[in-house]
Structures are given as structure tokens and as C-alpha cells.
Amino acid sequence: MTSLEIAAIAARLDEAERAGVQIGLISLEYPQATMDDAYAIQAALVARKIAAGRVAKGWKIGLTSRAMQSALNIDIPDSGVLLDDMFFADGATIPAGRFIQPRVEAEIAFVMKVPLAGEATIADVLAATDYVAPALEILDTRIRRVDAATSKARTIVDTIADNAANAGLVLGESRFAPEEVDMRWIGAIVSRDDIVEETGLGAGVLNHPAAGVAWLAHRLARYGGAILPGEVVLSGSFIRPIEARPGERIDADFGRFGRVSARFA
Questions:
Q1: What is the CATH number of the domain that holds 164?
Q2: What is the residue range of 178's domain?
Q3: Using CA atoms, how far apart are residues 82 and 69, in angstroms rounded to an integer?
Q4: Count of CB atoms within 10 A of residue 62's CB?
Q5: Does the predicted TM-score (pTM) go above 0.70?
Q6: CA distance 50 to 157
């Protein structure tokens, strides 16, 4: 894709979010688009938001489960950028109309204390982490999931370009030193209005949530970047996305690691 096409798509995605109206599939309009093109669109979109006053606060990692990767016919995760206006307090009410089609996932969030880049190992990730916390990620899509005319579903190009379907996050109040817990066995029971919808374990994220953070450090290093101190990294979901409809409360019970919830107005 050309630089003009990339900028135009970024502008359309930005407007779609503000207007609450989805755009068509990028992968259908530009069938030749690559993952590099998609990340270029994402970067242009984030740059627009930063120019408008937003502040980058971290990263989200997606497509970390085999089921989600198989659905998109890929074998690697993807990533997006967390911005300051995406953060909600535990127990917050999400304003009506804030998102188009919100869905929620349970994750383990890493908060970093030193930079991390390059060929990081799980041990490197743990050493670079200040603490981990339970979290909910709020997903949204500014691109239609399926094209009505062709029945074509969105691809990895659409997802990455749309900031990896990133929309918001809720951090739980619990804090744990990463070396003190086996994150493969951190689990969550996720309920919608007290009805259990999903359960899962941290091992569902690339066999260890820190593996996703290591992947991100390597990907960023390819472009001269790094995960920085103080940044929050959502390591990837270990449940399927749960639709969050108006008036519903989503609650994730992480057992001894705490709870985190949000209500959608």
C-alpha cells in the first residue's frame, strides 16, 4: 500500500471510532495488503491520536491462543497500543455509546520496571516486570467483522490495522511479584451478570503469559522500539471474547489473585 492509502485508512478508522460507525474490510478493499501495511496503518492511527492529545501507556498482545490463531489462519500473535483514555477503574461503569460492539477478555497485565527489547526470554520478562495484576481487556472493532455482500470475514490485516481490536482495559487492584506466582496456573472464572460464561488458565496464552511479552519485545526491536518502564502490557486472553451488552456487568474472579469487573451502561 502507498503512504497516501495508509494515511487515508487511518483517518477513516479514527473517524469510525468517533462516529461509532464501522467501515468496510480493508482486506477486501486492498487484497494485496500485508501485515507490514497493517502495522503501518495502526502506527498512523496511533500517531493521529497522539497528535490529538492522547498518551501511549503500553501495549496489548492478541491472538495468543491456538483457537484464535486457527480462526485467522495465522501462527503468530499481534499487538496494539494502549492509550491513556482506554484505562478504566476496577468496577467502573463504561459509558453508553463509548464502544461500537464491545467484548471482554480476561488477561494478566504486566507493569514494567526496566526496558525490555530484543531476544527476550521468559526469565528476562519476569526480571523486567515490576508486578502483574488481573485485568479485563475491552475489545471493539471499527471494521465490520463480515462483509455483507461477499460474506468475507475480516483477516489479520483488518485486526492489526484496527489497533488489534484494542479499545479499553480494567486493571484489578491486586498486585503480585512475577517471580512469586506460576502464571501458567493463574485462572479466572468470568461471569456476565453472575452467570458463568468462560473459564481459563494462563497457560492458554502461548503456554506462559510472559511468552507473549517476550514476543512483543522481539517484534518492537525489529523497528527500533522497546517496552518501556511503567508501561502496561496486556499479555493475551485465555478465554474467548464475551459480548458485553448494555446494562450487563462482567466480572472475572481470579481466586486468590483478586477480582476485576466492569458494568456497561
A1: 3.90.850.10
A2: 3-264
A3: 22
A4: 26
A5: yes
A6: 22
